[in-house]
Amino acid sequence: MDLPVNTVDHEMVASKGNLYTIGNRYSSNNKDIYKFACTNSITNCSWTKIPTQLQYGRYMTVAMPIPNALANTLCN
User: Fold this and answer.
1) Which of 19, 62, 65, 71 is the most buried (most CB within 10 A)?
2) How confident is the model over 31-62, as pLDDT tens digits?
3) Which residues pair with 13 in a beta bridge?
């Protein structure tokens, strides 16, 4: 299934059974995060834009999941 936007130089990362794509080369949507998730079966999957956005647009970056405890320590 194709992403709902044209993306180049984005990063994908898996977390808690979902796949996310973060940033891209296009300034019109390089702050956006899209989630790929399946409901009840592998044949019922879709991409959705999540409400959270990056503060600064990114492309050609690295993404990795970190535990909530570390995120809370770094961001608070």
Assistant:
1) 19
2) 888 898 888 888 888 888 999 988 888 877 78
3) 20
The arrangement of strands across the sheet holding 11-15 comes to 11-15, 18-22, 33-38, 45-49
DSSP-based three-state secondary structure for 21: strand
Structure tokens at 49: 């834009």
Angstrom distance (rounded) from CA 63 to CA 12: 7
Dist. CA 5–CA 40, nearest whole Å = 25
SS3 62: coil
Gyration radius from the chain CA atoms: 13
Which of these, 33, 35, 36, lies nearest to 45 by C-alpha position? Answer: 36
Q: How far apart are CA 53 and CA 41, in angstroms?
A: 28
